[in-house]
Amino acid sequence: MSNAVLNGLAGAGGGIISQIITYPLQTVNTRQQTERTAKTKSKTNQPSSSSDRGTGGSTLVQLVQLFQAEGLGGLYSGLKPSLLGTAASQGVYYYFYQLLKNKVEARAIARQKEGRGDGTVGMLSWLVVAAIAGSLNVLLTIPIWVLVTRMQTHTQAERKIMEARMESAIREMSTANLSESEMKAKLKELASQKPRPYGTFLAAREVYNEAGIRGFWKGIIPTLVMVCNPSIQFMIYETSVKQLQAKRSSIRKQPNDKKLSALEVFLLGALAKLSATVATYPLLVVKSRLQAKQEIGRDVMSRYTGTIDAIMKMIRFEGLHVFYKGMGTKIVQSVFAASVLFMLKEELVKFFLFIARIRHIRAIKSKDR
Q1: Model pLDDT, residue 322
Q2: Contact 137, 94 (CB under 8 A)
Q3: d(CA 95, CA 84)
Q4: Which of 48, 266, 316, 333 is the most buried (most CB within 10 A)?
Q5: How far apart are CA 316 and CA 343, in angstroms?
Q6: Which of 279, 330, 285 is nearest to 310 (CA)?
Q7: For the whole model, what pTM was predicted?
Q8: DSSP secondary-structure letter at 302?
């Protein structure tokens, strides 16, 4: 098994486990990002309350509220395509990342033999490698994430639609000659309506009916720009790993002592992801807005025709602070998920290598017999 395939499989396995652990936080964060809130009349353009901001309180409060309202099904809405997307994304990313990394490192060694350079890979090279791997990952897997976003925000969208219907019904009943009991019965009937079941197939059909095949690549521009997120993440991670290994080697005076503990990998992964998330979060909000269901309410502020249109309307109707809605939740979710992913990936690589070594030893022994 090649090094690239090995890292691809390990990345997919680690990604699936970290996704399952942190998925409820991801669901809450997506709903925070896609909740529309108009500017207030105050000079600061800040909402007057937590409910106005669309956050409804702390992340923990929202998790509890979501569980009470929709159960585990709400917390894990869209989990199946998300796990498929995570496995595909991590597998594709780590495969191409390791493939390109091997080539870059081989080239650096070749240059050293020619008397050019010290045989190490520079930060710019890491950035380019991560960017190319990330771009290939985005182009191949974005349709899955469009469906995941739709499924995570479906209940939220349906609630907005039901609120609009309720307001419309109240206006119609106020002009009609209905008795108080008839009005109460009508409103009770509307209030009892539940969001329709919403699976992967229905989400895919809805996306196709709205925009055709192109709908599955909604948000591709900000997503491609967001390739700099894993690029920054892996650049910081690889650089931190090298610095820590070099420091350890100099202290222990053992050049070959480069192994990091699971805890060290966890912490370095957290640091790398935190830095990348803070830098690129506004693009993530724009992407989520574009991929979520657009028919939320009847206001023009709720419908976007493209990336530039979304950015301009978000600034005009909601203010600059909207680009950082739910960032606290995202930092907790993404940093923890990335830390678990890095740790599990490295441990899985070690496990796969151990299994391969055992098989190799057994093969040698069987030949000797």
Answers
A1: 87
A2: no
A3: 16
A4: 333
A5: 42
A6: 285
A7: 0.58
A8: G
Q: Answer for the pair 349, 6: CB distance below 8 angstroms, yes or no.
A: yes
Calpha distance 122→120 (Å, rounded): 6
Measuring CA to CA, which residue among 204, 341, 320 is closest to residue 270?
A: 341
Q: 294 — phi, psi (to 5°)?
A: -85, -25
Q: Is 194 helix (H, G, I), strand (E, B) or coil?
A: coil
Higher pLDDT, 7 or 284: 284
Give me the helix-helix angle, 3-34 and 327-368, nearest 10°: 160
The residue ranking higher by pLDDT, 221 or 297, is: 221
43, two tokens: 């000079």
Distance (Å, whole) CA 142 – CA 287 = 11
Mean pLDDT over residues 190-194, rounded?
64
Residue type, 296: I
Q: What are the b/e assignments for 332-363, b being 16+ CB within 10 Å?
A: ebbbbbbbbbbbbbbebbeebeeeeeeeeeee
What's the pLDDT tens digit per position in 100-144? 888 888 888 888 888 887 777 777 787 788 888 888 888 888 998
List all residues 6 or more positions away from 66 whose beta carbon is below 8 Å from its beta carbon.
24, 27, 28, 31, 74, 75
Asked whether 293 and 251 are in contact (CB, 8 A), the reply is: no
Tokens of 253: 């005076």
Instruction: Please check whether residue 150 is in contact with residue 207, taking contact to mean a CB–CB distance below 8 angstroms.
Output: yes
CB atoms near residue 267 (< 10 Å) = 17
The distance of Cα 116 from the centroid of its chain, to the nearest Å, equals 40
